[in-house]
Write a structure and sequence with these properties.
The protein is mostly helical. It has 7 helices and no strands. It is found in: Membrane.
Length: about 170
């Protein structure tokens, strides 16, 4: 309605219902259920949904190079950071950190990988639908859950992982 597109098809509505069932099922079997954690999840979901659809709309309608999108998005993300740092008093802590070569190298590598991921993400967003982009993201999340299960013992129960697989 807002972006000049038709409502989802019956097949898409069924998929959305399956996702909802998976989400509700996961919450029902979550041993560490805390409602405040799910408030943050709902807030994230609202922003994620808006971001996915709106960024695809921008990629389709605003003519920019991929690198321009990357720089623009990272610049926009820096503005809240520059506001929050002084408000929380973290700016003083940044200047007193003792940097080592391995620590600086890890930070630099993290920045390079973040920009590379952003670049790849915008290339993918431009090439595929918002839905397919979301599916790729969900597959990446499933892979991280599998890695988490193999490494740590603080993870969802088998029933919880089963409901995650519905996502």
């Amino acid at each position: 309605m807002w972006l000049g597109r038709a409502l989802p098809s019956a097949r898409s509505w069924i998929c959305l219902v399956v996702l909802l069932v998976g989400s509700i099922g996961y919450v029902r079997v979550d041993a560490d259920f805390r409602i405040d954690a799910y408030y943050w999840l709902l807030l994230w979901y609202a922003f994620f949904t808006f971001d996915t659809v709106y960024v695809k709309h921008i990629c389709d309608t605003v003519k920019m190079t991929n690198w321009s999108r990357v720089y623009y998005a990272n610049l926009m993300a820096s503005v809240p950071l520059l506001v929050v740092l002084p408000v929380l008093g973290e700016h003083a802590r940044v200047w007193t950190l003792k940097w080592s070569l391995p620590g600086g190298a890890a930070l630099a590598l993290s920045c390079v990988l973040g920009v590379a991921m952003s670049h790849a993400s915008y290339l993918l967003r431009e090439a595929v639908s918002a839905t397919l982009f979301t599916i790729v993201g969900i597959i990446c999340k499933v892979v991280t859950v599998i890695i988490n299960v193999m490494i740590w013992d603080k993870h969802a129960s088998p029933a919880g992982i089963g409901f995650l697989l519905l996502w």
